Amino acid sequence: MLDLDTLDSEFSRIVKSADGKTSVASQLAIAYDNYAKGGVILGADLSAGGDKSLLESAFTVLDPSSGTPSNMAAKICAYWQGLPKSGIPSHGGIAVVSVVPTFAAVQAAVLAAIMACITTNEVQKPYKKLFGDIETVFKTAVCTITETMPTTPPSPSPFPETLQ
């Protein structure tokens, strides 16, 4: 992952520049997308996937019906669910034939991480805390990477991997 300090600084800069009339959700989505695509899952390509419109929805607070912690958790998990695509084989295979992430399955834990960050106390680097806690949850989600192994005949083999 990219440095959480960098993400915190970028989010702080964007939010500080907001005028209260214009949504900054698209800028926040771009910053988070760049951060997420710096992650590593062996055998997966994180640079090709991820629907930024899900992130925009996650970071929209102008509409009370969508600007909720539950919506944020659901949209961030959906974003991550679509992020990893087939990458370079990392387990001795000749090709990655599938990547099956389980980020959607940790949505309740992501919501719990978000709720734990909501406080009336001042927090230094609040975005670092929030996204660090979410990242910790995502590191528990298993992505099954299936590679075609160079056997005769070639055969698929699954490998469990996690976000690094």
Write a brief caption for the model.
By secondary structure, the protein is an alpha+beta fold. The protein has 6 helices and 5 strands, in the order ααβααββααββ.
Radius of gyration: 17 Å
Biggest sheet features: 3 strands, antiparallel
Structural class: alpha+beta
**Which runs of at least 5 residues are low in confidence (pLDDT < 50)?**
none
Mean pLDDT: 92
Overall morphology: elongated
> Which percent bin holds the helix content?
40-55%
Report the sheet-strand fraction.
Answer: 15-25%
Instruction: Give the beta-strand count.
Output: 5
In sequence order, what are the helices and strands, one letter per element?
HHEHHEEHHEE
Integer count of domains: 1
Instruction: Say what oligomer this is.
Output: single chain
**Distance N to C terminus:** 7 Å
- Tell me the strand order in the biggest sheet: 3-4-5
Number of helices: 6
Describe the structure.
The chain is α+β, with helices and mostly antiparallel strands. It has one domain (4-162). Helix content is 43%, strand content 16%. The protein has 6 helices and 5 strands, in the order H-H-E-H-H-E-E-H-H-E-E. Helix 1 (4-17) crosses helix 6 (126-138) and helix 2 crosses helix 3 (52-58). The longest helix is centred in the N-terminal third of the chain and has 14 residues, at 4-17. The N and C termini lie close together (7 Å). The model has no long low-confidence stretch (mean pLDDT 92).
